[in-house]
Amino acid sequence: MQALVCCLMCAALAWPVQGQAQEHERAPSQAPLAEPPDYRSAIESAVDEYELGNFAEARSQFQRAHELYPNARSWRGMGMTEFELRNYPDAIDHLERALACEIKPLSESLRRETEWLLERARGYVARVTLRLEPRDASVTLDGVPLEPAQRDVLLLAVGDHTLEFRALNCQTEKRNIKVTGGEQRTLQVSLRDEATLREGRRWYKNPWLWTAAGVVVAGAATGIAIATARPDSELARPQGGTTGISLAGPP
Fold first, then answer.
1. 158 and 214 in contact (C-beta within 8 Å)?
2. How would you write the pLDDT of the chain (251 residues) with one tens digit per residue?
3. pTM (2 d.p.)
4. Which of the four, 35, 46, 184, 250, has the lowest number of CB atoms within 10 Å?
5. Which string of b and e fits 163-182 if b means at least 16 CB within 10 Å?
6. CATH for 31-122, among 1.25.40.10, 3.10.450.50, 1.10.3210.10, 1.10.238.10?
């Protein structure tokens, strides 16, 4: 009996420790339940810089606050600064996240303002849907490699852009895109196999092929020359038609 009581006491003491360990394991993947000590000062600094028109500095402070405590308000602040810096694809991404985030969610008035700004940002980009073969081809946008998750739909800011596509044993291909803003398009890219291209080049450069082609051309030229060398009387001789009617009349 005493041994049973001892076991129960040990289990009771161990249970809170186990619960704390599980809570500690979950904490890194979840946002803090309350604002960390430095979060408020970072937000206030970001707002001050934004109101002064120092948008790069404001973005830095909003990012610092977001790292401490990611929430809808910090997403919105970063989206607003990206918009002012004319980084419209990033502005769209951040503003969409702000509207979807449930941590410190936006009030109705802030949601309306955010949706209005989001629509403005969408008017300054092109939405390009990629249809790529092979699917595992790498994509570079203006010299910057894109992650696989970024390749299906591209948001391109107004201006000229260069897309480059590479795949193993395939010919590299480049596409130039000019964006005026607000357009939506689908880009189909099928990279050609290098082995097939090499085979085609060998066929194209085959000397026997061009020798045979030369004989055909020479024969055609000889036939034309013979036809043009016929006497006028022979060329003027009437030829039989297919109507069955003779112009000479009855015999």
1. no
2. 444 434 433 433 333 333 333 333 333 445 567 889 899 999 999 999 999 999 999 999 999 999 999 999 999 999 999 999 999 999 999 999 999 999 999 999 999 999 999 999 999 999 999 999 998 899 999 999 999 888 889 999 999 999 999 999 999 999 999 999 999 999 999 999 877 666 655 545 555 544 554 544 455 555 544 444 454 444 344 343 333 333 333 43
3. 0.62
4. 250
5. bebebeebeeeeeebebeee
6. 1.25.40.10
DSSP calls for 130-146? EEEESTT-EEEETTEEP
Ranges of each domain in the chain: 31-122, 125-196
Tokens of 8: 């129960």
DSSP string, 9-61: HHHHHHHHHHHHHHHHHHGGGS--SS--TTHHHHHHHHHHHHHTT-HHHHHHH
State both tokens at 110: 């802030």
Collapsing DSSP to helix, strand or coil, 251 comes out as coil
- Asked if 64 contacts 134 with a C-beta cutoff of 8 angstroms, the reply is no
Query: HSE on the CB side for 63, CA within 13 Å?
Result: 9
